[in-house]
Design brief:
Strand content: over 45%
Mean pLDDT: 74
Structural class: mainly beta
Number of helices: 0
CATH topology: Immunoglobulin-like
CATH class: Mainly Beta
Helix content: under 10%
Order of helices and strands: EEEEEEE
Low-confidence stretches: 1-12
Number of domains: 1
Length: about 110
């Protein structure tokens, strides 16, 4: 069984969040996962960058694996309302719908 340490928020600035998880494995290595979430207002998109840094106690080398995905939201969602919730087993990223007020269209009175 391994011990997991959760770092809810390492850093937060403007529209970027960083979160991480780390644990010591039974084989004597340290693994650190870092999840970066960026909200791009002009593109109405969310960028997820997942990085895994593995270092071994008996070696001076590190291995880094990085995956970057861009998700463009449909127009009826607003990227500036993005929220994150972190659990032991998942990170939930939510964006809420835009509030659109439809204009009231009235018929013109016609003189016959």
């Amino acid at each position: 069984m391994f011990q997991t340490k959760k770092f809810e928020r390492i850093a937060e600035s403007d529209f970027s969040w960083s979160m991480g998880l780390s644990h010591d494995a039974e084989l004597g290595s340290t693994c650190f996962w870092r999840l970066e979430i960026e909200a791009h207002r002009k593109l109405n998109a969310i960028v997820l960058i997942a990085s895994r840094d593995i270092s071994r106690y008996n070696e001076n080398t590190k291995r880094l694996k990085r995956v970057r995905k861009v998700y463009r939201l449909p127009d009826h969602y607003d990227v500036s309302t993005t929220t994150t919730t972190m659990y032991d087993w998942a990170v939930v990223v939510e964006a809420y719908r835009r509030e659109r007020i439809k204009p009231l269209i009235r018929r013109c009175a016609s003189d016959a």
